[in-house]
Amino acid sequence: QIFINNEWYDAVSKKTFPTVNPSTGEVICQVAEGDKEDVDRAVKAARAAFQLGSPWRRMDASDRGRLLNRLADLIERDRTYLAALETLDNGKPYIISYLVDLGMVLKCLRYFAGWADKYHGKTIPIDGDFFSYTRHEPVGVCGQIIPWNFPLLMQAWKLGPALATGNVVVMKVAEQTPLTALYVANLIKEAGFPPGVVNIIPGFGPTAGAAVASHMDVDKVAFTGSTEVGHLIQVAAGSSNLKRVTLELGGKSPNIIMSDADMDWAVEQAHFALFFNQGQCCCAGSRTFVQEDVYDEFVERSITRAKSRVVGNPFDSQTEQGPQVDETQFKKILGYIKSGKEEGAKLLCGGGVAADRGYFIQPTVFGDVQDSMTIAKEEIFGPVMQILKFKTIEEVIGRANNSKYGLAAAVFTKDLDKANYLSQALHVGTVWVNCYNVFGAQSPFGGYKMSGSGR
């Protein structure tokens, strides 16, 4: 069902859609399919909750922080169930859902809870006998559209800062993975958030998502997802009421391995950078640039590591890689693998289906990849590693920056001067040095170019 005003409703149209277990391809359950009429109801509820004099607007900032901490406590109480639900609906290994995703959810909510009463304005000594000051005010109704690759974490990333600063939310959750977000809606009510402060709508992008982005009474929209949809969000926001927009979009992030890198560590981290979360990360290290002196050794070690990767039942504690999220993504990735072979990249391992049911793909490594190939330019969003050879630092800087994306990058080297030089030269939002996928609620995240805007 749809969560509006702290109550559960069927869609106005009475339509539903199935959510599928990607490990088996079987339907888990039917979910209410929200569209424009449901978004209108949710925005109306949110606007009422934001009115001056409402319980939410009268609430002390410290109490907003207390509610966020209470929500974190409830999520921690139900952590085992939420992790299982995330794995069932998304396909990621249970141990990752439990330790990584939910661990980061809790840190995020508690971090922003601490900020709730620490935003403050300034007094400004302007000329003359005047008193000038600023104060931070909430934006208002925040439309939020979250993706399927990290459903719980993206929900927390969107809710935490919005609620800490006194906003109200209308959230459209991904149709592939609606279950954990809807379960958290129950916890939001249990925590004590007033009706209308958070409203959650499962549905499809062209209907529910478009309605959020173009709504005249939504003050801001934040979207995490593909660059193609990000374009549509930006246009819809601009052509409606010029609402503020924050976009966290796709990437084709360069991972640069210098010849002086610790090879054992670089191989393992490059594997992690690409294959984590079944390769379904916007910031995945999906262009692995290796200096020619160590190219052959790195490739051989990467093949060995990919072949040892355990693919299978995501509820098995030994599993490193579960299925892709759905059939559409599954077929898209296999299409990119076919493209790589046809365009002349060398398939070194994998390249096929890894099970007789579900959406499992073998860990795949391509060598001899050229910048002009499709797999080197487009976001694959799957367990497909592309390894490219380079000679000099200046060469790799030019090639790494020669992308429409600019989300993240990494450098592996023992030379701090090289690391600093490359970090400043790479036109991306985040640069990791001798590590990958290190996140903190305290650190901003976002990209340049077609990877989005805002932090």
From TrEMBL:
It comes from the Eukaryota. Residues 8-455 form the Aldehyde dehydrogenase domain. Belongs to the aldehyde dehydrogenase family. The active site is at E248. PROSITE patterns: ALDEHYDE_DEHYDR_CYS (PS00070), ALDEHYDE_DEHYDR_GLU (PS00687). Its EC number is 1.2.1.3. GO terms for molecular function: aldehyde dehydrogenase (NAD+) activity. It comes from Mops plicatus. Keywords: NAD, Oxidoreductase. Pfam families: Aldedh. This is aldehyde dehydrogenase (NAD(+)). The gene is ALDH2. InterPro entries: Ald_DH/histidinol_DH, Ald_DH_C, Ald_DH_CS_CYS, Ald_DH_CS_GLU, Ald_DH_N, Aldehyde_DH_dom. CDD domains: ALDH_F1AB_F2_RALDH1.
